[in-house]
Specification:
By secondary structure, the chain is mostly helical. The chain is 72% helix and 0% strand. Pathway: Cofactor biosynthesis; thiamine diphosphate biosynthesis; Cofactor biosynthesis; pyrroloquinoline quinone biosynthesis. It catalyses: 6-(2-amino-2-carboxyethyl)-7,8-dioxo-1,2,3,4,7,8-hexahydroquinoline-2,4-dicarboxylate + 3 O2 = pyrroloquinoline quinone + 2 H2O2 + 2 H2O + H(+). Belongs to the PqqC family.
Amino acid sequence: MSDAWSAEEFTARLRELRTRYWDSHPFHLRMHAGTLTKDELRSWAANRWYYQRCIPRKDAAILANCPDPDVRRVWRERIVWHDGTKPGEGGAENWLRMAEALGLSRDEVLDERHVLPGVRFAVDAYVTFARTRPWVEAVASGLTEMFSHGLMSRRLADMRARYPWIAEEGFAYFTARLAVVSGEGRSTLDLVVRNCPTRERQEAAVAALAFKCDVLRAILDTVDYYSGTRP
């Protein structure tokens, strides 16, 4: 069996996947350029909702598979962040507020009438991955957090500038997420490095992160293909 990579080399292998992140997707580039129509933004928000609502289910699967109580104590906070501690709170609620600011009704987002089959397939595959793979691989798949802070900062600035018709409360998801995503990325990376002592586990972690990048790009591929046709 091959020798394990050093922590530095392992980290470098994970960071190399930065080029596969969805920030360079043509749909995102048009979003930041301010050339998306209102219908295109609404379609994006309605479909991205399905991903947002499934994140706590993914995290719950990690909790169910993880035997380490210290990890579980930390990881459960992610579910609380998305679901809140009561109705009307949390990241999912903030996403609904953005959808409303874009002109969608809460009901049409919640009943998922606009969710495209390709988006549903990709997101469901991600949840299934978290349920069926070792917990540390599921955690590693979430290392897209390492790449998201810059994208989120740029998106917030560009959407405020390019789409001034969006009410400020519509950006609550991004402003709240910016406060935590950088720290989550660092802590998740440390967790993966500590729990992948063998080359086999390290390679599986890299493959998991690559899979997550593919899931994210598949979501945008689908939305981009149907761009402007729904809702």
